[in-house]
Amino acid sequence: MRTVAEVGYSRATIREIARTAQITSGSLYHYFPNKSELVKATFDELADIAVPRLAAAADEATGVVDKLMALFDEGGRVVREYPYAVAFDRAIRVESAEHLHLGEDADTLFDTLRAVVVDIVEQARRDGDLDPDADVGGAANAIFAILRGMYDQAAVASTAHYDATLDAVKRLIQGTLFGSGRPA
Q1: What is the pLDDT of residues 102-126, one digit of tens each?
Q2: Is the separation of the CB atoms in 162 and 154 below 8 Å?
Q3: Residue 134's domain spans which residues?
Q4: What gap in Å lies between CA 167 and CA 177, rounded to an integer?
Q5: Distances (CA, A) of 26 to 12, 30, 32, 108, 174
Q6: Which residues make Cβ contacts (< 8 Å) with residue 46, sequence separation at least 6?
Q7: Res. 132: pLDDT tops 60
Q8: How far is residue 13's CA from residue 20's CA, in Å, rounded to a whole number?
Q9: What is the pTM assigned to this prediction?
């Protein structure tokens, strides 16, 4: 993940990936016949880790605001644990061979994550916590846009800047970022 994140998919070689992992190229070839299979397996593993963690964090919380806070907090933890994940995703979206379909897989991952957000907003509607004039799809899209923005922020921001942005997003959702601290 680190090598592809740092040099891009096309410039990452099995030799460089092995050197970064402090193993031999032969060891990698023992498990993966080529770079594309290694990269696809890496992407799949990351998706298999991240999405269930985010969904579980939201499921464990109660109430729409707590569910959203849990979702954003867990997203922050995932980004910290896998600091090369966002740049890796960007690199494979831009450069990976079409036959890998990693761009489509990444879109599927985001669709799955969007479904988690839609479920939270729909629950808020059922519980009466969503403004009755608000459109469920529009509200879910707004929250998901912020979530995607935080994902992109993780690729370019320092840890301190990311954490400050995450704090501001959480305050925005809680209705305490502006004004007297009371929801509008």
Answers
A1: 666 666 778 888 999 999 999 999 9
A2: yes
A3: 35-174
A4: 9
A5: 16, 6, 10, 32, 52
A6: 1, 82, 85, 88, 89
A7: yes
A8: 11
A9: 0.82
